[in-house]
Amino acid sequence: MEEQTPENQDVNFESRLDLKPLQDHVEAIKKEIGKIIVGQNEMIELLIISLLSNGHTLIEGVPGVAKTITAKLLAKTLDVNFSRIQFTPDLMPSDILGTSIFNVKTNEFEYKKGPIFSNVILIDEINRAPAKTQAALFEVMAERQITMDGTKYVMEPPFLVFATQNPIEQEGTYRLPEAQLDRFLFKIDVDYPSLENEIQILMENHQRHDVLDFDAVAPVLNAEQIAHYQGLIKQIVVENHLITYIASIINNTRTNANLYLGASPRASIAILNAAKSNAAIYGRDFVTPDDIKRCTKAVLKHRLVLTPEREMEGFTVEKVIEQILETIEIPR
Q1: pLDDT digit of tens for each residue in the chain (332 aa)?
Q2: At a CB cut-off of 8 Å and minimum separation 6, what does 114 contact?
Q3: How far is Cα 294 from Cα 269, in angstroms, rounded to an integer?
Q4: Do 237 and 216 form a contact (C-beta atoms < 8 A)?
Q5: How many other CB atoms are found less than 10 A from the CB of residue 82?
Q6: Beta carbons within 8 Å of 332's beta carbon, 6+ residues apart
Q7: CA atoms within a 13 Å half-sphere pointing along the CA-CB vector of 74
Q8: Is 108 left (phi over 0), alpha (psi -120 to 50) or beta?
């Protein structure tokens, strides 16, 4: 799919919303991350869209393609609390959520909060932990709260989870359950860099003597600004025929003969919110069909399940999504 750029966007209009500060901050975030990361423009932009849409993101790729570093650098550009959790086969739910500890002085149990109590959480290799540990994230990712010993703890905004995972074909991985996958706004597939980017990676690594200086990346947005931009995104105009277009895409996944499992209403809302953010970062206060098409694959590919017959034939979810987008008439 053609990558959208400011040059191929229709900018001959006067926006009703002042989106220039948002665009400037997006470019500043890209510039800061670009101090260390070479290429991966699509991943970086989708991560920024997920931030503006207030959605969690799953990043998949083989080891060594800068999944973790990119997510960590994005967190560095945000002046908010950051927490990293390394998932391992022996990790327990209490290692994430926290646990109640008996205080001998007060003769009462006290709740010691776990690392999930932060603003941006990077979960590294999420599919290395078993289902019991993965299930500990269900409530906090969907409702942004934790219920512990009958007490509800609400997470401070912003609350975003960036999770990385290795392809499920790799040894020592556990497939994430559908209920968990549905809580991620996007799934971003990270491929190997091009030859030109690989050469640039080697040159820059050689010049900095194999040292990553994370301190060179400066914060760009604070919590108040993030909340402001997330509120601004909600004011982006979406015409009724485009809402029907999104609903038609989702409905097709539920009746498609190639699919065993279609997408939920959460997926249609995800496409709507992501399309608004995509429009905003290009300075438009209205959504176009291209915004919807661009975000659809990242929203749907982790939510759809092929029928066993299609899977055996080597069919892919990405191919089904492309067919759906080609089948449904684009509103004009």
Answers
A1: 444 544 444 445 556 888 999 999 999 999 999 888 887 888 999 999 999 999 999 999 888 788 888 999 999 999 999 999 999 989 999 999 998 888 887 878 888 999 999 999 999 999 888 888 888 899 999 999 998 888 899 999 999 999 998 886 666 677 888 888 899 999 999 888 889 888 988 888 888 777 777 778 899 999 999 999 999 999 999 999 999 999 999 999 999 999 999 999 999 999 999 999 999 999 999 999 999 999 999 999 999 999 999 889 888 999 999 999 999 988 87
A2: 94, 95, 96, 97, 98, 99
A3: 15
A4: no
A5: 14
A6: none
A7: 28
A8: beta
Tokens of 248: 């038609």
Residue the block writes with tokens 């934790």: 146
